[in-house]
Design goal:
Number of strands: 12
CATH class of the domain at 280-437: Alpha Beta
Radius of gyration: 65 Å
Oligomer: single chain
Bound molecules: adenosine-5'-triphosphate, magnesium ion
Order of helices and strands: EHEHEHEHEHHEHEEHEEHHEE
Largest sheet: 5 strands, parallel
Helix content: 55-70%
CATH superfamily of the domain at 280-437: Histidine kinase-like ATPase, C-terminal domain
Strand order of the largest sheet: 2-1-3-4-5
């Protein structure tokens, strides 16, 4: 038989009974304590707290009732069983008051004792089980409470972190906004500066091209002036000899007027050049005439520099619609680049056989007026080819170029719905070709 998992204190003063019950109980309870009287029983109780106490009533030193009374005061759970002789039944009322659970009369049968103890053990074990469950529940509750606390703490910490992060982010966003604003302002300022600079440079380039022309113009004026003063000298000389004929005078005066006309023409041209070109309107213009005009301003200068001008203009008149002064400016820009290119090549090569040549062609192709300026100068490297029409792109020194010539030319051609392109080979040639819509008269 498996032992009951309970502890029992058995209190009996009679040796024989003690021995008998000790043997019986020992067989089926897990733990058994034996006492000879109430005092001893009390001590064992205090030491071991058994689940069940079976006690006699009448005993020396301390009787069973005194013992269980003291125990009951402190312990409501312990099962108390009185094992008494028949003559002791008068104490049962007191025993019930104290809180005894049950009574057994001596001599009790083994079977009855066992079944009684088994019955009580069921209750004890059940109670223990309930207590254990309760303990576990409490422990689980405690764990849960701790977990909740921990969770709350972590949530609180995380909330603090999040608040801090949000604050930092807002701060960063504000800083970024401010930075953007500063940047925007700086870009605006820079753009305004760039714009001013560009306007200044355009103006400068206009002035420079006029300055460059001045030498040629002075020469052009000098020629007819020389003619006039020589003509007048001749007249005065003839007059002093009194050999002046009317016919001679008429021819001379006509020649003088021709020279004066030439000067007027040049002056008109310069005046037109200094007008505000923005307001000049479009008109039907003739390209060959414009090329001639442009050349008239620079040809002397080119001649002085030993630059050969190869002019192949179409015999037909080449009409297009545009502003002639602008087209003239475009031609002059191309000529100025060509001049620079051939001069540079000469400087680099130092070859006496080299003939600085600028070729100017005009012709009609597919209802377009084409004019080309080609030079046998330094050429344009492949790398720079993509940039030459960009404003401010220049490979020249500050004193030699602003980088605006080709971009202005590009603008002029574009405005006239035309096309411009460049072809070049380093150290061999550069050809700029402009195509403009032909005007059919
Ligand atoms: N005929 C050419 N031969 C060689 N390089 C040329 C020729 N034409 C233009 N280029 C190159 O293209 C660049 C840009 O020409 P662009 O006329 O726009 O400016 P620039 O001549 O440098 O200065 P600017 O014309 O304003 O005085 C030149 O600096 C040069 O490198
Ligand atoms: Mg130029």
């Amino acid at each position: 038989m498996e032992k009951l998992d309970i502890s029992v204190l058995f209190v009996e003063d009679e040796y024989l009974l003690r021995a008998i019950y000790e043997r019986i109980l020992n067989k089926f309870v897990a733990k058994l304590y034996i006492a000879e009287n109430g005092k001893e029983g009390l001590e064992l109780y205090k030491k071991y707290h058994p689940d069940l106490i079976i006690t006699d009533i009448m005993m020396p030193v301390m009787d069973g009732l005194d013992m269980i009374e003291q125990i009951r005061k402190k312990d409501n759970n312990v099962r108390l069983v009185i094992l008494s002789a028949y003559g002791e039944t008068e104490y049962f009322i007191d025993a019930i008051k104290i809180g005894v659970n049950s009574f057994l009369l001596k001599p009790v049968e083994t079977k009855k004792l066992i079944s009684h103890v088994e019955e009580l053990a069921k209750g004890i074990l059940l109670e223990r089980e309930v207590k254990e469950q309760e303990r576990k529940r409490k422990k689980a509750e405690e764990n849960l409470r701790k977990l909740n606390e921990e969770l709350e703490k972590r949530i609180e910490e995380r909330t603090i972190d999040l608040k801090r992060e949000i604050k930092e982010r807002i701060q960063a966003e504000d800083e970024l906004k401010e930075l953007n604003l500063t940047l925007e302002n700086r870009v605006k300022e820079e753009l305004i500066k760039r714009h001013k600079q560009q306007r200044f440079l355009i103006q400068k380039s206009k002035l420079e091209s006029i300055g460059e022309l001045a030498a040629g113009i002075a020469h052009e004026i000098n020629q007819p002036l020389g003619g006039i003063s020589m003509g007048l000298d001749n007249i005065l000389f003839k007059q002093s000899l009194n050999s002046i004929s009317e016919e001679y005078l008429t021819t001379k005066i006509n020649a003088l007027f021709e020279d004066i006309d030439r000067i007027r023409q040049i002056i008109n041209h310069v005046r037109v050049f200094s007008r505000d070109q923005q307001v000049a309107a479009s008109d039907v213009v003739e390209i060959n005439e414009i090329i001639h005009n442009a050349l008239s301003m620079v040809s002397k200068q080119y001649y002085n520099h030993n630059i050969k001008i190869d002019l192949n203009l179409d015999k037909e008149k080449c009409y297009t619609v545009g502003n002639k002064y602008r087209i003239e400016q475009a031609v002059l820009n191309l000529l100025s680049n060509a001049k620079y290119a051939v001069e540079e090549k000469q400087k680099k090569q130092n070859n006496e056989d080299y003939i600085k040549t600028i070729t100017i062609n005009s012709f009609i192709e597919n209802n377009n007026i084409i004019f080309e300026v080609k030079d046998n100068g330094i050429g344009i490297s492949q790398k720079n080819m993509d940039n030459i029409f960009d404003p401010f792109f220049t490979t020249k020194d500050v004193k030699d170029g602003t980088g605006l010539g080709l971009s202005i030319t590009y603008g002029i051609v574009n405005e006239m719905k035309g096309h411009i392109n460049a072809e070049s080979e380093t150290n061999k040639f550069t050809k700029i070709k402009i195509s403009l819509p032909k005007y059919n008269k």
